[in-house]
Amino acid sequence: MIGIILGTRPEIIKMSPVIRECERRHLDYFILHTGQHYSYEMDRLFFEELDLPEPRYNLDVGSGSHAEQTGKILFGVEKILDQEAPDIVLVQGDTNTVVAGALAASKLQIRVGHVEAGLRSFNRRMPEEINRVMTDHISDYLFAPTENARENLLREGIDDKKICVTGNTVVDAIYQNLDIAKRKVSILQDLDLRPHEYFLVTAHREENVDNRDRLRGIIRGLESLQKEFSMPVIFPVHPRTAKRINELGIDRDGIRVTRPFGFLEFLQLESHAKLVLTDSGGVQEETCVLGVPCATMRYDTERPETLAIGSNILVGTDSAGILEGARTAVTWKNHWKNPYGDGIAGKMIVLVCAAVRSN
Ligand code: UD1
Ligand code: UDP
Q: Which residues form the UDP-N-acetylglucosamine 2-epimerase domain (predicted)?
């Protein structure tokens, strides 16, 4: 039996190919949702539009400090794993859900599979970096998306036998949903946008939006971008960011702030954008796969493959850097090859998990 633990928007999206494959093979599995994300447009919406089965459990942990959230998840997951006794638990990515889910399982001597293992920004000030490192070191199966991720793990002394390079499940998720998005959603018309004549933005990293200067820098950078190119800037805001923008009372000249979109709408917006500006991990990958230039509003990235192939540029968070980086990136033509695999990561992961039997 496979236990799939997830709790946030990107985990639902990137685990969806794994869940689909478990369904297709009629495997014995269950979904444990921690409830880290709970607002409709950060959670339920994705179950509905990706047609995913209901989680068997939801811990409803909600928001809180890192220790509070991680502690609640650890406590709740342990009880359920004790009862269900799966042969293997799968976690995806680098959130508090991931580190707590993996730790609860490993203390119960349940095997842990880490999907998207081996990513490193080498910046321990990011909470996600701590979660990644800890999760990788307590996992038994490390599903690395790229050779570079595998090398990061080997450098930290992790046994090569535990590592399997699968590609990133985000590619599966894109391939499985791009055509559906074309048929089902019409977000460009809804927002009165023309292809390649708008910028798309996301920002939610704690170190960016919880820092007044950085958030101001981002907003100013977007304003100057809008002025220079005279094109709409579409900014679907994450709830963390919405809260901070309201608290700071930043005026947002020329930026169209919207609700967070569903995955189908967001995919469509990404694939037709002139340029995407983001601090998201998943969005750096998706733009690279979709052949759209990306400017990452950070000073480092755990997705260096995108920099190496020339789909992404680090522009920082001050307004001048954002404008300058955007000027460069808008000139790029899609000549790069996607480094994240050919869309069979979910199948490979499930194949490995299906062979695991507990001691
Ligand atoms: C979390 C992850 C981050 C990931 C992101 C994906 C950690 C440490 N962070 O960040 O790695 O990139 O999810 O989006 O695990 N909120 C709502 N509704 C929700 C969820 C959150 O209103 O459904 C608000 C709350 O005010 C909350 C804040 O957003 O305090 C932050 O939520 P939280 O889950 O702590 O972190 P994220 O910024 O979402
Ligand atoms: N996404 C979405 N709607 C939005 C913004 C993002 O569906 O309005 C999707 C996006 O396509 C990607 C994922 O959310 O698959 C990225 O999640 P997020 O940026 O919250 O987290 P990160 O990847 O940084 O952990």
A: 21-350
DSSP-derived secondary structure letter, 164 = E
Q: Are 341 and 145 in contact (CB under 8 A)?
A: yes
Who lines ligand 1 at CB under 6 A? 8-10, 36-39, 42-43, 63, 94-96, 127-128, 204, 206, 238-240, 243
Residue of the CA atom closest to atom 30 of ligand 1: 63
Q: Domain 177-329 maps to which CATH number in 1.20.1600.10, 3.40.50.2000, 3.40.50.300, 3.90.1150.10?
A: 3.40.50.2000
Residue 204 designated active-site: yes
Ligand nearest to the CA of 6: 1
DSSP bridge pairs for 90: 4, 113
Q: Whose CA is nearest to atom 2 of ligand 2?
A: 263
Residues in the chain: 359
CATH of 2-168+342-358, one of 3.40.640.10, 2.60.40.10, 3.40.50.720, 3.40.50.2000: 3.40.50.2000
Residue among 33, 37, 114, 204 flagged as catalytic = 204
Tokens representing 82 are 């004790």
What does pTM read for this prediction?
0.98
Distance CA 28, CA 6 (A): 17
